[in-house]
């Protein structure tokens, strides 16, 4: 489970996770709830590195955080 500390301070945030070829595998708008490594259809993703983009405010994409997260079973 991926928990983002202090995410409660950004109730209008947009969270997106992509695989290595750039396909979006997870998206969430609003108050963040921990991500369990499942894709948009609820299927557990294979072990790999995934890349995330977080906008503090989904209506203002000027503030962006990017990085990587690993899924391990």
Stretches with pLDDT under 50, minimum 5 residues? none
Q: Specify Rg, calculated over alpha carbons.
A: 12 Å
Structural class given helices, strands, pairing? mainly beta
Quaternary arrangement of the chains shown?
A: single chain
Question: Can you walk me through this structure?
Answer:
There is one protein chain. Strand 3 and strand 4 form a beta hairpin. The chain has strands at residues 14-18, 24-29, 48-57, 60-71. A 4-stranded antiparallel sheet has the order 2-1-3-4, with no helix packed on it. The protein contains no helices and 4 strands. The termini are close together. It has 73 residues and is mainly beta. The relative contact order is 0.27. The model has no long low-confidence stretch (mean pLDDT 89).
List the helices and strands and how they pair.
Elements: E1 14-18, E2 24-29, E3 48-57, E4 60-71
Antiparallel strand pairs: 1-2, 1-3, 3-4
Feature tags:
single chain; 73 residues; mainly beta; 4-stranded antiparallel beta sheet; 4 strands; 0% helix; globular
Summarize the structure.
The chain has 73 residues and is mainly β. Helices cover 0% and strands 45% of the residues. A hairpin with a 5-residue loop joins strand 1 and strand 2.
């Amino acid at each position: 489970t991926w928990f983002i500390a202090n995410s409660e301070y950004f109730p209008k945030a947009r969270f997106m996770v992509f695989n290595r070829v750039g396909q979006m595998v997870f998206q969430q708008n609003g108050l963040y709830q921990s991500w369990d490594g499942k894709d948009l259809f609820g299927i557990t993703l294979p072990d790999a590195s995934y890349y995330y983009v977080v906008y503090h405010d989904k209506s203002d994409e000027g503030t962006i955080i990017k990085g990587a997260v690993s899924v391990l079973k």
